[in-house]
Design goal:
The complex is a heterotrimer of chains A (330), B (519) and C (207).
Chain A lengths: L1 H16 L8 E6 L9 H13 L2 E6 L3 H10 L8 E6 L3 H6 L8 E13 H7 L19 E4 L5 H14 L4 H10 L3 E3 L2 H8 L12 E5 L2 H7 L10 E17 L6 H11 L2 H4 L2 H5 L2 E2 L8 H6 L11 H20 L1
Parallel strand pairs in A: 1-2, 1-3, 5-6, 5-7
Antiparallel strand pairs in A: 3-8, 4-7, 4-8, 4-9
Helix pairs in contact in A: 1-2, 6-7, 7-14
Chain B lengths: L1 H26 L2 H8 L4 H32 L5 H13 L2 H11 L8 H25 L3 H9 L4 H29 L3 H7 L6 H11 L3 H28 L16 H29 L1 E2 L2 E2 L2 H4 L5 E3 L2 E2 L4 H32 L2 H15 L2 H11 L13 H23 L5 H7 L4 H30 L9 E2 L4 H9 L4 H32 L1
Antiparallel strand pairs in B: 1-2, 3-4
Chain C lengths: L1 E10 L2 E11 L4 E5 L6 H9 L6 E6 L2 E2 L10 E4 L11 H11 L5 H10 L15 H13 L5 E5 L7 H18 L2 E6 L2 H7 L2 E4 L6
Parallel strand pairs in C: 3-8, 3-9, 6-7, 7-8
Antiparallel strand pairs in C: 1-2, 1-4, 4-5
Chain lengths: 330, 519, 207
Amino acid sequence: MKLAAVILLLMGVVACGDDNDGGPVAITLVAYDSFPKDGTPLNEALQTFTDDTGISVDIVTAGDTGTMVSKAVLTAGNPEGDVMWGVDNTFLSAATDGQIFDGNPSPVNFGDVCVNYDIAWFTDEGIEPPDTLEDLLRPEYRDLLVVENPSTSSPGLAFLLATIDEFGDDGWQQYWTELRANGVEVVDSWDSAYYERFSGAAGSAGDRPLVVSYGSSPPAEVVFADPPVDTAPTSVADQTCFRQEEYAGVLRGSKHPDEARQLVQFLLSEPFQREMPLTLFVYPVSDNVPLPDVFTKYAVISNNPHTMDPDRIAANRQQWQDQWNEIVLR
Amino acid sequence: MPALAALPVIALALFYAWPLVTLFARVVGPASVADTLRAPGLPRVLWFTLWQALVSTALTLVLGFAPAYVLARYHFPGRRAVLAIATVPFMLPTVVVGAAFLALLPRSWHGTAGAVIVAHVFFNIAVMVRLVGAMWAVLPTDLTAAARTLGASPTKVLRHVVLPVLRPALWAAASVVFLFTFTSFGVVKLLGGAAHPTLEVEIARRATQLGDIDGAAVLSVLQLLVLAVVIWWSARWQRRARVALHGDAATRRPRSAAQRRGVTAVVAVTAVAMLAPVVVLVTRSFRLGGVWSLAAWRTLGDDEVRPGVSLGIDPLGSLATSLRYAVAATAISVVLGGAAALAIGAARRHGRLLDVGLMLPLGTSAVTIGLGMLITFDRPPFDWRASWWLVPLGHALVATPFVVRSLVPVLRSFPADQRAAAITLGASPLRAWWEVEVRRLARPLAAGAGFAAAISLGEFGATTFLTRAGTESMPIAIDRLLGRAGEVPRAQGFAMATVLMVVTAVIIMATEAVHARRS
Amino acid sequence: MLDVRDVTVTFGERTVLHEASLHVDTGEVVALLGPSGVGKSTFLRVIAGLLVPDQGQVWLDGTDISAVAPHRRHIGLMFQDEQLFPHLDVAANIGFGLRMQRRSDPARVDELLALVGLQGFGGRRVTNLSGGEAKRVALARALAPSPAVLLLDEPLTGLDRELHDRLVADLAEVLRATRTTTVLVTHDHDEAAAIAGRVVTWQADPS
């Protein structure tokens, strides 16, 4: 392996010495929209991969995760690239059923979807913030929570899955009936929930101090604050989290399967993994990769997050969404 | 003249019909049709789609009438700016308009049909001002004067002369607005809430979130059928109502005090109504942490928000990308639209077919076209799905009908034998065609080109479903910035939306200036 | 009796009419003769009420109608370029003025068609008419509501000589037959003499 790397490195040097000689292999990484194409430490890390192996990586974006997977299923066997980045566990079954991957995809990162709260609001009111899903039904949290519609929003779906995992196939409907009675507000997208309705986001006009967002939203509030702040204005109820995992794998039909496999290996390696937190606001899969300060300080990663088997998600998603619509929106 | 039709026909067949048929052939079958049409939520979706489109269209026609009149007939200081103000919203990406209206409308309106309709009217006033205004501008003043001397009061002039004469343009405007509101996606998604999905929203949900491409395709066939009927019917009416207008009516300054008051009132109301959402957008780009700040604008040029922290979105780079697309899309749509309009003007029955055909891409679900292209242009010699030019070409498909729409009513109102007259005056047929038709088309063509450029800049439809390399176009960059956690990216999104609006406004004003000089 | 007193019209800096006056007796046909650019058409528009003058009044049968809206003046105007309604057929064009007064009268339309020599043309599209036919329709349309005063703005310009001469004769005949108070604007001396009982000549303003 090491020898191969050295040889590849040498070939890379030779290739650099004479550009016209055969030319280096170029492979294409297909990713969701929010994957940066250029200018971030993540892209610099990819450049080191190219420098080391002589394999250049073109990044193309294919829409949000659902769109990306739908397109990959349509083009399975004649893919738009060689490696796909970022299929999460809610879409993983659709991807594997559609046979888009050559072999099994590998988990590359994870993150939580949790109820976030506005620290200042709860301090001012002298109320303890909630901790668990059950807590959200208590009268003191009446009319405080805003969630996303699971039919139209990925964190919305994750939160629904958390409640299904917690209360079971027969219990979640009752939970949502009660949540509705306790004044939960539903909006269609994470943007409107977080920026229009939630009171804790900087610059938001919202008045609800509880929102379904990401476990990494608090560090994002710090990183993107202007003027800079040294404490996060928001925090996370860590018993409410659903674990989202993202996968990457070689696409079936790739013209450069070997180089593609090398890239997947690289995506799992430390030089790439350590740059993910501050670019994609997700956690590296390996415990050995150091986290940036704002993450260790402000991000919450749940000790026992809710999870669900991708096959179960795929089999029930539409039925659950329809049931949820009946319960919450009628 | 049929040779002229070949170009748009080939483009339409290759880049619209073929991908669509490929997709439909692959996924639409008896089983998927039965499953999809039996879905319990479907009647509600269809009903909402239909009634909101009808109400939005009716309101747009009524509310757009006065601005269309004043802007077409009167000359006053700042006219060009007001024209741009009234037109720009139409070009904005729906996500930007949606965000602006969320900020502008009271909470109780969010998620209501009312919010959707208000935003639709705001969007489509431009269609009235442009399409009806273009015809109104060539309606001779003396025609209404003649009616006045025959005893018609101003309201009777409107009812018995102006409306009947403008009918082709009114039908054209109504069909375009209906088309846009029936297939509305971004605005409905942002403002309508989950309780108000249109067919287009449902198609996108099935295709992208449920992986139900079969169902999405079936629904988009359904949508196409509805719209094909509407377009056909409207084209029929436009033809029936067609009238010959000759004599240009120049804009003039309001003379009497009453005229001045009327013009001022209409201009003021239009400007305020159209500017309010825009002002909200601009304001937001300067607000950070509840105070005024230039931070979002300062960081627009480099994508590092903090040392070491970068969004991977290059706002100014996206402007360059969008401008490049716009130039290409405008060139393509002017050629296609110009050829199509002349062919439609010359041919009879087949012209009609082309006219309807060119409108179809507007009414076809964007996600369906995008997915169709994906599985059609995937093998040599048609391995184009990763080509950059597919994007401006997609823009051009959407923009071409607007070029055609701004040309055809004027073309149809040419007296039939003017060209023959020119030939008898010694002009060669080519020269006659140039002198009589092309030269008179310069003004509507400039308007059409401006429209096309602006549409390309704001396009947020089919091409956003294409897989993309390189820097994003501006609407996509804005969408992504607005969708990021953190205050600076969001303010940057609003700053970019401001830039997009300004660029669009400049283009609109420039086309106005061009034809003002020509005429 | 039409009495136009001291009408002044300016467009921006340019004075088009300066204290122009004209008196026309009931039933009289007056021709206003002069080169183009002396404000003859503008003068007619002031009389018809289509243009509000900077100064001056229009009196009709002893009443100041300066403030009366054009559609209430009962003053008909035949335009140089006809301005037929393109969406209406010949009969509907002629009947337009009657319909505006809520008195649709097919017999009157037929009568006017006959008067201008266009029997059987009622159902024609106006866009398919010859130049002379269009002039006749325009004349019939202006006469149909029996206006108190008929204003003719270069009504026979742009026709060939033969057709022109025939229409001059016909027009003179029609005006005599209907005894309509008429102001004819023209730059053609023969035409003025043939149609009008009195010719008023305007000179180009030396300024």
